[in-house]
What we know:
Blueprint: H1 7-16, E1 22-30, E2 36-43, H2 50-67, E3 75-79, H3 90-95, E4 100-109, E5 112-123, E6 126-131, E7 134-139, E8 143-148
Parallel strand pairs: 2-3
Antiparallel strand pairs: 1-2, 4-5, 4-8, 5-6, 6-7
Helix pairs in contact: 1-2
Amino acid sequence: MQSADSSITKLARGVVEPMGYELVGVEFFPHGASGATLRIYIDHERGITLDDCTAVSHQLSGVLDVEDPLPGHYDLEVSSPGIDRPLVFPEHFQRFAGRRVRIRLAEKLEGRRRLEGMLLGFDAGTIKLDADDRLWEIPLDDVESARLVYEFRASGETARNDDD
């Protein structure tokens, strides 16, 4: 995911948020000489429909055509974050404290690159995670990816989703 201060993220946020959506994240995947994919994740408290993705795509493609921030050919994709919502920005880690998350680190920390546990919060650039019966303090800059873990419930119970 692109950082919160990247030019692409700032440009996307400037289009998405005035339309009433939350910018969840921005991914850019180069495919060598064949081009690239720019994927924008959006969310809304009522959920995301195909019409929402189409509206944001239309507005954003116009701005991208004018600003031209990326070299070469790329495909624009606008998507909902899904049930395993990515956590990218500091406010995501604050908002989803108390939820189960899966974190992949850019480099090993105490011999581990993957951690899964209860997100306790975020403070001063550090994610607080209860995993494997201990407290982990992980600098956000060390995180390659982080996602909510969808918690399935037994029959008759309600499963947790992004807005619980």
